[in-house]
Structure formats: structure tokens, C-alpha cells
Amino acid sequence: MEAPSARILAFVKRFVVVAALVLLASCNRGDDPTVDTADASTSSSSSTSSSVAETTSPSTAFVPGALPAARPASATRAYLAAVRVAAHDGFDRVVFEFEDAVPGYRVDITTRPVTEDGSGDAVEVKGEVLYEVRFENAATARFQGERVVPVYQGERRITTRGEVVEEAVRTGDFEGVVTWVIGARPRPEGVRVTTLASPFRVVVDLGSPR
Question: How far apart are the two ends of the chain, measured CA to CA in Å?
Fold first, then answer.
């Protein structure tokens, strides 16, 4: 007859072997190519990348582009959804966010008097230097049957405390053209215009005076 101590020792050995196999299977499961974790990480990464691109300074110094900065009108109508202004190290950033597409645009220096598209009424804009941002094949509201449904529900005038931008004012939404004027403090260090996707954005950076 097998001694009790021998049976106990054999049981312990079998338990250790089984535990090791379970642990090994658990470790390997994390590397199993059939376990798909890409969707969650990609979604998070895309969202983070979009936010970083909009809210942080570039790794290089601010480099202004030539004016006028322009892009042809898009075939798909773009609907303005939001406008944001924020101060960054070396520049202020104005972000125009759209639904459906990036519109055509033209950014250039303009002069007073500033007038509203369509009505021709005078519009006051604070700032010593004025930049007109004109979007083509764009609108701030959609037609749903006979109803007009606003897409942009923000302010027409956005006043800031940035180093460069004093305020951004909507001066038009007429016949597929949406216009804003950005009023800047004296001697801005030029303008840089870029576009981003997911969501669709036109980004206007105004460099801080040196």
C-alpha cells in the first residue's frame, strides 16, 4: 500500500502542474492574434491625435505662410458647427469646425469698414489688424424639407484674452458663403492656415509679436 505521505506528495505535484498550465494559458491569451483590441485603441488614438493636433503647439517654431491662403470650394457643402479660440505658446489659434467636409477658404488681410454679406450693414470688429476668413460652399444651417435647422449655434462675436486675437466676428452667411473677420492686436507675426479631419476643421494660427 502506498504511504499517505507519498500520495500527498503526488497530489501536490499534480496541482502544481495544473496551476502552471492554467497560468501559461492565461498569459498566452493576451498575445492571441484572434483577440481584437485594435478597435478600442485606434478609436482612442484617433481622438487623442485630433485633440493634440488642435490644442498643442507644433514641435517647431511658428512659421507664417503666405497670404492670401486659399483652397478651392469643395463639391460637398460644409456646415459650420463650432468656432473656438485659444492661446498657445507663440500664437493664438482660431478653429472653425465643420460637418460633412472641409470647405473652400480664402484667408487674407482686410480693411475697414467691415460690412455684413448680403445686407451691407457695417460691423464693428476690435483689433488693429483684420483678417477675413471666407468659406465657400458653406453654411451655418441645413434645410430639412421646408424647415431651416441651425447647425452652428454659437456666438456671432467671440471676444478673447489671447496675446494676438482680440475677437472673431461672423460677418456673413449668404448664398453658400460664410465669412468671419478676426481682429488682431498690433504687429501679429503672420498667419498659418492648416486643415484637419475627424472632425473637419480649418485652423488659423496668428503668431505672437516677437
Answer: 95
Cβ atoms of residues 81 and 178 within 8 Å: no
d(CA 167, CA 198) in angstroms, rounded, equals 26
Which of 169, 157, 207, 205 minimizes the C-alpha distance to 186? Answer: 207
Strand 157-159 and strand 165-174: the pairing is antiparallel
Q: Which three cell numbers stand for residue 205?
A: 494660427
For 162-188, what is each residue's pLDDT tens digit? 899 999 999 999 999 999 999 999 999
Beta-sheet strands, E only, within the chain: 69-71, 78-88, 91-99, 104-110, 114-115, 122-123, 129-136, 138-139, 141-144, 147-150, 157-159, 165-174, 177-184, 191-196, 200-207
**Cell for 20?**
502552471
